[in-house]
# Entry
Amino acid sequence: MFVLAENADFMQRLMFGLKITLFGMIMVFAVLGLLFLVMCLMKVVFYKKPHKNLKDKKAEETVPVIQPEQTVQPVSNDGEILAAITAAVICARGGDDSFRVVSFKKKKNKKVLN
# Structure
């Protein structure tokens, strides 16, 4: 089906390569489509819908759902957080002692992008 002459010029070789590539891509997508169809058929044949009894529905409705309390503790000391972040950066850099924090200042942003 795909035969290339030994004395083929550049354009013939290029077209041969494109034909082989196109044929390969068509085969891959054809097999993927076939697998999709097989999976859909398996779903139709083997899938069973769960039957819910009235007792199960009543039991589900009567069980109360308890939400856990979410408590948020206010940050008491920003210095501790900054120290932890600084220590993490130093560890990430391999424990290099040449890293030194000079100061931390809050920056007031006038422009807010949403």
